[in-house]
Amino acid sequence: MPAKSKPRRRGRPAVPAADLKTFLDHLGETASVAGAAAKAGIQRSTLYQLRKHDAAFAARWEEARKLGIERLEDEAMQRTLDGVQKPVFYAGQQIASVQQFNDRLLQFLLKAHKPETYDRPRIAAAAPLPFDLVARVKEAEARMNAKGDRLPPLQPSSPRKEPRRGKR
Known about the structure:
This protein has a domain at 12-118. Helices cover 54% and strands 9% of the residues. β1 and β2 form a beta hairpin. The chain has seven helices and two strands; from the N terminus they run ααααββααα. By secondary structure, it is mainly alpha-helical. A two-stranded antiparallel ribbon has the order 1-2.
């Protein structure tokens, strides 16, 4: 008698192994979950649920993701060092191409590989004041009142006259 398989929740059919392989292969090339899911024809939510409940699949996912990131880093390094050929057009026709380098990409790579040298230290958020100004003013008023020294009440300022504009 063959062994019974576990019943699936919510009646969803199992994802075909070939589709999972397509997903993992594409993830390993691009590090893009959305792109790999589209290429395999599988909903991302299905893949995330599978990853959550299947440790072996989660490990293969992480391995493929890391490989995809390494490939992206390799491509970025190649573009930084060798540049990219950009076409030059004149009157609607391509007449030449120029090799273009990306200094900003070089900065990102240097920061990633040697942050101690090329990355600026992060500036922490402004520290709160070491005192509560409102509380200090109230304390000062209380001390003055205790001594009998009272500040004169504020005089309302005189109303301003509006300047004349143009002729009347």
